[in-house]
Amino acid sequence: MASKPIVAGTDGSEESLRAVDWAAREAALRDAPLRIVAAAALLPRMAARAGTVEYDNVTEVLLKQRDSALALAAERAAKAAHGVLIDADPLDVTPAQAIVESGSGALMLVLGSRGIGAFTALLLGSVSRYVASHAPCPVVVVRDEALGPHGLVGVGVGDLDHCGDSLTFAFEEASVRQAGVLALHAWHTPQTEISRAGQMFTAPEQQAAAADAGRHLAALLEEWGARYPDVTVSQEVVHGHPGRALIGLSARADLVVIGRHSGHQGPGSVRHAVLNHAHGPVVTVPSA
């Protein structure tokens, strides 16, 4: 059994329960324990009180909702993956920070694409975006899943010199799933750069740039292919916006893996676009 757990966050919503299902199946694939966590979204200046009272206050209602969500998620996970060791933990601090901290020492953190209660408005503008940007481990945001497996793990390779962590995760995931890896490198010249240069790239220049990137990517994948000989490897180099290319890839892959770099945390980043519009689960992998 893997020593590190897979952690799934829940609030009892159907979206978060689908994420728990995904996490449970992933734990079974990796022979890893599953830890399910939930936090009560206490309002500002509210805190849990010690002792008992004769009636429920708002804090107590939220804590009961948290505990009910945990119980429901644990029951659901047990049905999704028989034999997986499941632990359910209530968290006592604010959801965003609590979920980030729960990822310390985890194989991955798994969240739904939206939620209620402890994950209020989890629309990649609040908790999930924060966690996907700051957690110390890979973060999976589970969106719609395909009816059947594609047998493919997609990985976005932006910076060809600093993509080792995301490639390692993609190949490991493909290996446990007995799937292939498709590495996608998309390049484009922003309009501001075109204006600054005063001219567009010519077709021969675009072809030369694509060929050079393709050779670099092929050499990189050869190294990872040697480490994972059971994984079939393919690559695509396209001229276009990386976000749109990765969203398209998500429609034909079981999972899309993208790197997480501190310089790409704004709302216009590739990561934010993919997390908001992908057709399936997306994982962000932090760089070491």
Describe the model:
The protein has 288 residues and is an alpha/beta fold. It has 2 domains: 6-142, HUPs (Rossmann fold, 3-Layer(aba) Sandwich); 152-286, Rossmann fold. The protein has helices spanning 14-30, 58-80, 95-102, 127-134, 164-177, 191-197, 203-227, 242-250, 270-277; strands at residues 6-9, 34-39, 86-91, 108-112, 139-142, 152-156, 180-187, 233-239, 255-260, 282-286. The protein has a 10-stranded mixed β-sheet, sandwiched between helices. Strand 4, helix 4 (127-134) and strand 5 (139-142) form a beta-alpha-beta unit. Helix 1 (14-30) packs across helix 2, helix 3 packs parallel to helix 4 and helix 8 runs parallel beside helix 9. The longest helix is centred in the last third of the chain and has 25 residues, at 203-227. It is elongated, with a radius of gyration of 21 Å. The chain starts with 5 loop residues before the first strand and ends with a strand.
